Write the structure tokens for this entry.
Amino acid sequence: MVDTIWPEFLKIIREEVGSRTVETWFKAVTLKSWSIDQKEVYLEVPNGFVKDWISTHYLVLCQTHLGRLLNIEMPKVTITDARNFQSENNLVKVATPMAPASFEKSKFALVKAPVAQRSGYTNVGYTFDNFIVGPSNSLAYAAARAITERPGELYNPLFMYGSSGLGKTHLLHAIGNSIKAQHKKSIVLYQTADRFVSEFISAIRFNKMHSFEEKYQKADVLLIDDVQFISGKDQTQEAFFHIFNILHDARKQIVFSSDTVPQNIHGIAERLRSRLAWGLVTDIYTPSLETKVAILKKKAEQSNEVISDEIAHFIASHAVSNIRELEGALVRVIAFASLTGQLISLELAHKVLLRPVTESTSKSVDFKRIVQCLQKYYPYDLSALCSKDRNREVTFARHVAIFLIKRLTNKSLRDIGLFLGGRDHSTIMHAFERIDNYMQKTPEFSAKIKLIEQEILR
Ligand code: ADP
Ligand code: MG
């Protein structure tokens, strides 16, 4: 059974978190066993780093989907670090996984059991304690800390902006967790603007406006992530405006994150824009090399690994534009070392990070070159790609173009949208995911895309 459950699980989460995450993190994890009686699932990972990462970022995901596959409602997920286990037990290899305890008793079926809703809650793994402060984020950090001392009183709203992967979501959750720790009764609501929009739409569709509004209006702390995604959604904005006013009047704390300053969020009503900037607007920018090195060393230390300055420097300077990528690079190095039983050396880091065509190689390709190369495979020129033509073939070629641009350049979703005829970022995101998923399902197509990619990078 283990043989089929785990691949099935990977397939499902690939849809949700993308293949990159699956490759980086979940490929290193093994499903050891589970117990329906104890409502527990046992996973094994190669080292403490992967363990921390999975526990911090993907625990709910594991609970939800493994739970569903194994027919255990929200099981406890226990993750063991294979390396520790081996050394403590002084064993060379732990060969036999425990037999799934009471598996036989239960009827195993791939039923869609109701799952606990993750939406709305803060992620307890993101705290101030494990947020590393440096010049690039110290203002945002200080502001975030300050509002947790006196929620609703100091900066309201607090608006934090910066590029992707620099810690905005982390800080939002940290604020929520910290306030909740101090005031047990306060209602802390975290939501991404995307989800807010879709909740709103379904509230309208199913006549649930009242409970939708009520849910948000009774929040003591409202954390809205990636608020830029509310752009162009006029009706949602109106509902949001209303909620904002009620909360703000009642001195409830509101915090936003965004990829840009309020003035640059297009497609939102002026009155909402001005409210976004009412309190304090603060930015997070790309960390300097020194900060990156500090982050790496701290992260390694947190998972009981030691990396030398030299190696930290190498990782930090190797094509990593944000902290998410930085963590990814570090974990690949650590995981590779532990999987192959080698010490972490500069040479090893080289080997792992300088693989040909990884997701973060050469981010300096330009849009035009991508479109040019693409044309050999999909016969549409730039004006066709930019047009409003929704013919299936053109649309598909356009989606491939979006996918390649996003993968091979550093451009934001917004920039890509602007380049391709002024499309909005959610369209771009959707197109990217569509191609990404299609590649997973279709090896020939995936090979074709890799070929085009190589040609572009040549
Ligand atoms: P954003 O929301 O800005 O795109 P995230 O908050 O999701 O970025 O951060 C991406 C990853 O990097 C997360 O795993 C987060 O924990 C980590 N991270 C970002 N900044 C820091 C920091 N200063 N210290 C520790 N971890 C960080
Ligand atoms: Mg985020």
In short: The two ends are 44 Å apart (CA to CA). Confidence is low (pLDDT under 50) at residues 85-117, 356-362. The first strand starts at residue 30 and ends at 35. Residues 323-340 form the longest helix (18 residues).
